[in-house]
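A.,

Following up on our hallway conversation. C-alpha cells first:
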C-alpha cells in the first residue's frame, strides 16, 4: 500500500534517521516506537505528505487515502459537533448533488430514444451504485455511533464545538478521521484525551473496522491490543519487528545484548590495535605492520548501541512519619457548582498503605474530589484527613509551580537527600533529562518536560499520602515503569487518577468509579473493574449504559413461535401469546416516547444550566424555578421509564421461554 525506500531526514549535522526502508500493507497494525526526539512524529508527517524528507522515496498509489491525527492541530469553532462530524462525508454530499442534478435532467428531457439520454441514464446508474456503496444517506447513524463511542452524549451533538475543551475537540477530529474510513490511518498519541471506555471502544474499532494503521502511543495496553507489528526508530535507523509490542520488548533486549557483545569485541580489537601501534611505532622492522593496523582502524565503523536502558533503575521514596490508620474518610460528601451537582453522598474510607484508583469519564468529578481532599475547594458533608498525614500532590497544573530561575539539575538537587544525591543524573536520565538536558533552565522547558520534572521532584519528597492526578500524561513507557515501581515500593497510601490501564494494573487494589453524580467502590484491580463494569463497548453501538443495553435488547429480541404439533410445559396458547406481543409493542412505544421526552427535558436543563452560570441568570428566580420543576419532571419520567423497561423485559423473557 505504501512503500518507503532509503528515507533520510536531517535537521542538523547528524541525521534524525537514514536509509529507512519498509512497506505498509493492508491490514497492518504498526506501532511506531522510539525514545522522545527519535523522529516518530516526523515519520508520520512524512508519510501523510505534511513534511518532505531530505532524501529517499515514498511510493503511495494514486487511489490510496490517508487519515492523519497529529498531537496538536488547529481546531475550528464555528459549527455544532454533528455538523463538524458531517464534514467527513463531504464526498457523499457532492455526489448526492450530482445525482440530484442528473435526476432533474432525466425528468425534464423527452428525447428518450437519443444516445445522449441513454448515456445520461448509464452515468446516473453508475453514480447511484457508487453512492449506495459509499453508504448513501445512512451516515447520520454512523456519526452518532462513532461520536457515542468516543464519549459524546446524544444531547452533545447539537452543541457548538466552542463549548468543549481542547481534549473533547480533539475527539471530534478523531471521529471525523475514523468516519472517512481512509486506507491508512496515522495516529499520533490518539489516547491522550480519552477515558478508559473510549480507549477500549477505539481499540475494537481499529481491530475490526480499520484497514492499515500506524500509531504512536505511550499507552502499552492500547498498542498491545491494537498492533501486530513494531517499527523502532533507534540510533538513526528504522528496525522492523514483525511482532506486537510486548514481544518486541523481548526481541529488542536480546538485540541490545548482541550489540553490547559486538561493541565490547570491537573496543577490544581497537585497543589491541592501538597498543600494537604505540609499541612498534618507531621500529623500522614493524613499519609495514603498523601501517596495516592504522588502515584497519580507519576502516572500522563504530558499532552504535541503542540508547541506555534505565528500566532497572529503582527509586525509593524517602522515609516519612507513619500516618494514622485511615488517611482519608469521606462521609456524605457532596459538591455542587450553583445548581450543577458534580457528585453527592460520597462515602469512602481509604486505609493506610492502600493504593486506590479514581476512574470514570472526563468531567465526572475525579479531580474535584481530589481538590476537596486537598482542601482547595469547599464541599458539603464531612471529609476527615487522618493523623500525621503528609500529602504529596501531583496536579495536572503542577508544572506551573516550579521555580523558573533554576536548572533541571538544581531543581532536583534541592530536594534530594542522602544517597539519592549521588544518583541524580541517573534519575534525570530515566525521565528523559539525560546529558545536556539537565542544564536547561526550567523557564525554557515545554509543558510536558515541566510535568516530568515536577513528578521527579515529588518522588524525592518525604510524604505518606500520594495523590497523583493523571501522572502519566507526559511520560514515555520507560519513565512510567520507573514511576510505577516507585509507587509499588512506597509504604504509604496512594490515590491515583488515571486512564492508563497498564499503569494501574498490579498497582491498585481498589477502584472508585465516578459517574452519574455517584462514586462506587469496587474491590480488586483495574481489570477486575473492567470485567465487572456494566458498560458494553462495541464499535457498532459506541458506549452503552445499562439502560441503552435494555433498549438494544428490546430492538433485537426475537419472538420465537411455538413448535407445531403441540406445546411444551409452560408454553402460552396462541391467543395469550398474541396478546403478550401486543403488550410488548405498546410498551416498546411507551419506552421510546419516554426516552424522547427525557432527552428533550435534559436538553432544556442544560440550556437553563448555562443561563444560571451567568451572573444575570443566577439571580433570575424564573429560571431557577423552571430548572427545579424540569428536574422534578425528569426524575418522574426516569422512574416511569425504569418501570416500563422492567415490565417490558419481563414480558420478553416470558415470550421467549
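Then the amino acids I'd put at each of the 657 positions:
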Amino acid at each position: 500500500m505504501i512503500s518507503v525506500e532509503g528515507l533520510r531526514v536531517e535537521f542538523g549535522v547528524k541525521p534524525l534517521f537514514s536509509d529507512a526502508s519498509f512497506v505498509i500493507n493492508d491490514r497492518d497494525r504498526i506501532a511506531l516506537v522510539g525514545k522522545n526526539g527519535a523522529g516518530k512524529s516526523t515519520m508520520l508527517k512524512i508519510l501523510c505528505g505534511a513534511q518532505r524528507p531530505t532524501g529517499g522515496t515514498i511510493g503511495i498509489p494514486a487511489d490510496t487515502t490517508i487519515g492523519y491525527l497529529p498531537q496538536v492541530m488547529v481546531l475550528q469553532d464555528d459549527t455544532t459537533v454533528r455538523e463538524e462530524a458531517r464534514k467527513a462525508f463531504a464526498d457523499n454530499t457532492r455526489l448526492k448533488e450530482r445525482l440530484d442534478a442528473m435526476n432533474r435532467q432525466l425528468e425534464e428531457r423527452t428525447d428518450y430514444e437519443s444516445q445522449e439520454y441513454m448515456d445520461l441514464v448509464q452515468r446516473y446508474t453508475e453514480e447511484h451504485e457508487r453512492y449506495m456503496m459509499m453508504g448513501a444517506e445512512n451516515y447520520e447513524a454512523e456519526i452518532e455511533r462513532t461520536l457515542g463511542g468516543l464519549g459524546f452524549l446524544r444531547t452533545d451533538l447539537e452543541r457548538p464545538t466552542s463549548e468543549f475543551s481542547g481534549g473533547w475537540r480533539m475527539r471530534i477530529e478523531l471521529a471525523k478521521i475514523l468516519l472517512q474510513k481512509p486506507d491508512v490511518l496515522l495516529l499520533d498519541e490518539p489516547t491522550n484525551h480519552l477515558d478508559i471506555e473510549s480507549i477500549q471502544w477505539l481499540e475494537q474499532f481499529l481491530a475490526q473496522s480499520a484497514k492499515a494503521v500506524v500509531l504512536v502511543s505511550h499507552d502499552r495496553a492500547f498498542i498491545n491490543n491494537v498492533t501486530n507489528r513494531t517499527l523502532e526508530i533507534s540510533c538513526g535507523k528504522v528496525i522492523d519487528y514483525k511482532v506486537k509490542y510486548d514481544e518486541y520488548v523481548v526481541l529488542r533486549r536480546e538485540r541490545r545484548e548482541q550489540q553490547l557483545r559486538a561493541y565490547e569485541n570491537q573496543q577490544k580489537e581497537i585497543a589491541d590495535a592501538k597498543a600494537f601501534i604505540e609499541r612498534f611505532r618507531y621500529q623500522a622492522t614493524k613499519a609495514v605492520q603498523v601501517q596495516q593496523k592504522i588502515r584497519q582502524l580507519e576502516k572500522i565503523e563504530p558499532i552504535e548501541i541503542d540508547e541506555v536502558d534505565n528500566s532497572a533503575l529503582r527509586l525509593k521514596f524517602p522515609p516519612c512519619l507513619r500516618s494514622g490508620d485511615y488517611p482519608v474518610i469521606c462521609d456524605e460528601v457532596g459538591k455542587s457548582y450553583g445548581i450543577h451537582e458534580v457528585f453527592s453522598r460520597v462515602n469512602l474510607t481509604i486505609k493506610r498503605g492502600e493504593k486506590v484508583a479514581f476512574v470514570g469519564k472526563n468531567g465526572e468529578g475525579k479531580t474535584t474530589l481530589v481538590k476537596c481532599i486537598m482542601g482547595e475547594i469547599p464541599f458539603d458533608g464531612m471529609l476527615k484527613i487522618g493523623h500525621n498525614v503528609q500529602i504529596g500532590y501531583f496536579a495536572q497544573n503542577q508544572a506551573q509551580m516550579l521555580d523558573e530561575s533554576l536548572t533541571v539539575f538544581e531543581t532536583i538537587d534541592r530536594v534530594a537527600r542522602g544517597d539519592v544525591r549521588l544518583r541524580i543524573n541517573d534519575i534525570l536520565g530515566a525521565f528523559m533529562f539525560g546529558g545536556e538536558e539537565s542544564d536547561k533552565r526550567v523557564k525554557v522547558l515545554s509543558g510536558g518536560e515541566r510535568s516530568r520534572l515536577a513528578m521527579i521532584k515529588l518522588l524525592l519528597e518525604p510524604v505518606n499520602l500520594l495523590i497523583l492526578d493523571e501522572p502519566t500524561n507526559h511520560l514515555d513507557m520507560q519513565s512510567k515503569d520507573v514511576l510505577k515501581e516507585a509507587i509499588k515500593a512506597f509504604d504509604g497510601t496512594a490515590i491515583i487518577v488515571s486512564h492508563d490501564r497498564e499503569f494501574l494494573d498490579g498497582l491498585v487494589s481498589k477502584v472508585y468509579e465516578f459517574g452519574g453524580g455517584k462514586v462506587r467502590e469496587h474491590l480488586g484491580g483495574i481489570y477486575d473493574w473492567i470485567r465487572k463494569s456494566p458498560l458494553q463497548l462495541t464499535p457498532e453501538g459506541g458506549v452503552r449504559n445499562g439502560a441503552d443495553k435494555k433498549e438494544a435488547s428490546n430492538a433485537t429480541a426475537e419472538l420465537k413461535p411455538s413448535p407445531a404439533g403441540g406445546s411444551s410445559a409452560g408454553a402460552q396458547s396462541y391467543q395469550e401469546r398474541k396478546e403478550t406481543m401486543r403488550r410488548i409493542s405498546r410498551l416498546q412505544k411507551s419506552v421510546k416516547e419516554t426516552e424522547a421526552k427525557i432527552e428533550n427535558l435534559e436538553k432544556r436543563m442544560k440550556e437553563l444550566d448555562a443561563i444560571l452560570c451567568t451572573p444575570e441568570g443566577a439571580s433570575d428566580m424564573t429560571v431557577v424555578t423552571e430548572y427545579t420543576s424540569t428536574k422534578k419532571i425528569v426524575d418522574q419520567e426516569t422512574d416511569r421509564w425504569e418501570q416500563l423497561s422492567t415490565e417490558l423485559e419481563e414480558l420478553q423473557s416470558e415470550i421467549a421461554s
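Confidence is low (pLDDT under 50) at residues 536-572. Curious whether your intuition agrees with the design.

B.
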